[in-house]
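[Amino acid chain]
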Amino acid sequence: LNEIHTELYITEGDSGDVNKEHELKQIEAASRRNPTEDTPIKCSDIFKPLPEQDESIRNVLTKGVAGIGKTVSVQKFVLDWAEGKTNQDVHLIFPLPFREMNLMKEQKLSLVELLHVFFKEMKEMDISRLEKVLFIFDGLDESRFPLDFQKTVRVCDVTESAPVHVLLINLIKGNLLPSALIWITSRPAAVDQIPSECVHRVTEVRGFNDPQKEEYFRKGVSDQNLANKIITHLKSLRSLYIMCHIPVFCWISAAVLERMLGEAESGEIPKTLSQMYTHFLIIQTNIIREKYLQKQESDEEMLLKLGKLAFQQLEKQNLIFYEEDLRECGIDVTEAAVYSGVCMQIFREEFGLHQSKVYCFVHLSIQEHLAALYVHLNFMKKQRNVLEQNQVCRTLLDVHRSAVDQALGSQTGHLDLFLRFLLGLSLESNQKLLHSLVTQTESSYQNKEETIQYIKKKISEDLHTEKSIN
């Protein structure tokens, strides 16, 4: 982490209105913002008041879009503390990710017992005697707890048993361990679950600024000539360069462009988001093929199963899945282990602090791309529209209409990037790429103009500005 870590741009921000547009639009808006309006803050300083601030800071809420670097910021904060570099006034740090605490949703425990579950070493320690401890609740947006700050019973004793969400609320309110520091991270859409009176500072991880983007590629790509080619290519395509605010997108771009720009005969270099993600999927599938010498049919089967999982969980707005979610999609636990083994760059099986299994796609945008691929292939192979309970449909236009209508009907914009991918996959340039992944039976070229006319009609119907831009 110390060797590869590129510092992220983090700012102090107020807890303004919850942003209901897709995170991609928020990234584009951030790229237009004037940096002089911001108050930059180092990750290690988030609990330190600014010179003009008198009051101490107990609770910090850090927001940022998916893949922007919130969890890595947490890891770097803990590493710097453990190595004695920063925040040495803190005696102990307890990282408690929501994705792991979700598995204890039904249990009643005291705070002491909860800490024993996650940190076996705490058995001999009296937590109430420690002056300064820090609890890090990473991934509020992944929480499956009911967080009702108004009606929750008050708990002040660290040995009193209560449901886990009650302990969390009392820790955040300061009823339990009032001297403890609290750090919560979240995607923007979920931050309003924490009342503003319980937040003493809001910070925002804004990802990489332009110099940091270049630093990332120069650190990550050993051949500096190749790194320069990658940077030049991305700078020439504004929509892709804006996406490079997100470290995960830099990683995907580096994986694709390092391979393509480094080879003399490598085909057309990706110029759009859909092309970049489809190339990434092809590269990962080829790695699987080389590793396991599987037939093409099994690649297709695997992609369709992962696509179904991606689509069904995207509809529910879930980024994190558990065994029961997998079973609903027809994936058993042994298959999931195989998928995470062969597609580690796409799909992950994680073991929590108490060895529970949690599954996720490496990034939300990979989930959105696979979901779009699943919808597209269901029409191409079976003439089914999975957006409308698997109805039989005659043309791809019917699928596109359903997708446009559902994306417009979403309050959170959670289908916006999915829609961009779905429309992109029907273009000829992507159709040719898809042939190396799957066998297709239909041609989708003929519907492009009709889809364009339908979208223009929707825009003319006085859409919300942000939605019409998308």
Notes: The CA atoms of residues 64 and 352 lie 23 Å apart. Residues 15-19 have pLDDT under 50 and may be disordered. Residues 273-292 form the longest helix (20 residues).
